[in-house]
Amino acid sequence: MAQTAGSVQLENEKVDSLFYYFNNGADKKAYQASHHILRHIKSNKAIANANLLLAHYHNKYAAIDSSIYYTNQALKHKSVVNDSLGARLTILAYQLLAINNKDKGLFHESKKWHLKGIELSEKHHETNLYYSHLHGLASTYIALNKTTEALGIFKDCIKNSKDPEIILGSYINLGSIYSSLYQYKLSNTYLQKAKTICERNTHDKQALISILINIGDNYLNNGDINKALYTYEDAKTESRKNKLVNLELILDDKIGTVLYNENRNEEALLIYASALTKAMGLGVLNIQMHSYMMLEKISARRNDYKNAYIYGERYNEIKDSIDNLQKEKEINQLEMKFETLQKEKTIKLLKIENLNKSLNIKNKDADIEKYKLQEAIIAKQNENRVLQLQNGVEKRKNEIALLKEKEQLKALELDREKTIKYIVLVAFFILLVPTVGLLIIYYQKLQAQGLLNLKEKEINAQRVSSLKKDQEIKLIKASIRGQDHERKKIAQEMHDSIGGNLAAIKLQFSQLANHPDKVNLIYSQLDDTYEQVRNLSHNLLPKKIRENDFVSLINEYINTVQEASNIAIQVSFYDEDKINELDKILQNELFSIFQELTTNTLKYANATAIDIQLDLLNACLFFVYEDNGDGFDVSQTTLGIGLTNIKSRVENYKGIIHIDASPNRGTNINIEIPIENHTNEA
């Protein structure tokens, strides 16, 4: 059935919302929702965009083949979308294919997709995407040892691109190129510029790791092997921490090469074996090829010629595979087309410059003629000014005579006005004195009335405070009475029912030797006692937990906190129905954690915003709590009673808690609790 315009728009808006989640830290949520939504949407544009999101997700986590598959799916469904958004989607897909092929080690294939992206970006005036592809092409040129071509492109990107990420990447790559040209001082200058940008923008971990790699290369090229290895290991730790597997593979390769050159064969062997396993899992062909080559060399050095032969065979297989996967003819044609376009641009610029020079010469001749005319005009103007001055002298003489007559008349008028003003001033003072007296009396009355009102307000405030205290005392007394009543009720229940059952079970056990047939009766009495204990524990839960939905209870609590403070609190739940079905005891523990964390923020953090997320996915409860307050140093701070209690509650449910905090950067707390049978029972 044909779709309506409204349903198509709704599908596109759903996919757009998933991109928002992906770009704001909830990439796993966006990934799961994309798989779900693909089963229901029918619009080609929405399907293409959903596949493109999945391609970006797999690219982020170095699942290269999966990323290429979903990119091709996006292009397949985009083929019927011919508007400007469809062209933009195609350019983005070409960029993903180029990046994935480069990560895979197919540099010529990567170059082909970047050249196609550049051509399409120019055609549709997509300036930002043009420079993204141009920057990627230069990076591919580095991998192909075309440093001269790459150098010019990166400088062009810095000069003309407005994208901060492209400028940052260009600085890093220029540092790498100048390092390869043995110009280490210039290399470190560009790397320092890039590092300054990363320090202002701390979330760009991939760029920071790339900078560390290049700094390590400079140490290595200057002969400082220990510093190089230390820097590589530091970068590798950051890569593993941020799940940047492609960078981790590059660092394994660099560390392995250093160890091999230092004759540390056993360590190098372990590094390359590990790198080979990771590269095979991710389909990164160039790392596989280089790992096999180095394993062949290491085995030969260790006189293990059998394994050296096997590794050599594998090396040649991978090399042949890379050559077969790349179509040189089509790529060279695209590259020639790109270079021709670049030359045409340069020729056009030169023509414009020559035209401007010829126009400047003509303009100079015209300026000389204008100058001569201006001199003639100035001479005529001077003659006219002399005549005007002569006429002006005669006019001024006449004006002076008239002014003298006017001054005499004005003097007479001023005398008359002074007399009138004097009379008016005297009359004004006569009226002013009684008016001022009345105003003073009125002001004194207002002051007295104000003091009286202030006293009344203080008395009323004291009365209200007294009433509140009386009410609080009554509530506390009522609460104590209620607690005493509950304790008596629980004690009576335990004594009469549970105690009686236990006494009966004890008696049955004492007679078990003479009456072995009473075992089933004992089991029955134990089940009955267990059920009574379970009912009693459920009755101990707070009334608000037992009688309300958990999500509504949390929202009510958050609203209360917001009304009493200036903190903006954002709460989100995923699958509210399943969260409301959790076991009430677990809900009570979660509510206590909510209260403890919020209280800590209000007391100590000086925060202005709190972001809370509670998701139930794949039989696991994810609780994320984040504020923008003062934070603290986790490594130098002992957990207080509140956080210790939270940790104990989480561990009781076999969960894990991770606290990420640092001074002046807020606090982030992540809790994961496995959900097995923690749902409400009938």
UniProtKB/TrEMBL annotation:
Q: Which domain of life is it from?
A: Bacteria
Residue ranges annotated as transmembrane are: 269-287, 422-443
- The record's EC number reads 2.7.13.3
Question: The Histidine kinase domain covers which part of the protein?
Answer: 489-677
Q: Which InterPro entries match?
A: HATPase_C_sf (IPR036890), HATPase_dom (IPR003594), His_kinase_dom (IPR005467), Sensor_HK_TwoCompSys (IPR050482), Sig_transdc_His_kin_sub3_dim/P (IPR011712), TPR-like_helical_dom_sf (IPR011990), TPR_rpt (IPR019734)
Which keywords accompany this UniProt record?
ATP-binding, Coiled coil, Kinase, Membrane, Nucleotide-binding, Phosphoprotein, Transferase, Transmembrane, Transmembrane helix, Two-component regulatory system
Give yes or no: UniProt keyword Magnesium. Answer: no
Coiled coil (UniProt feature): 315-344
Reactions this protein catalyses: ATP + protein L-histidine = ADP + protein N-phospho-L-histidine
What is this protein called in UniProt? histidine kinase
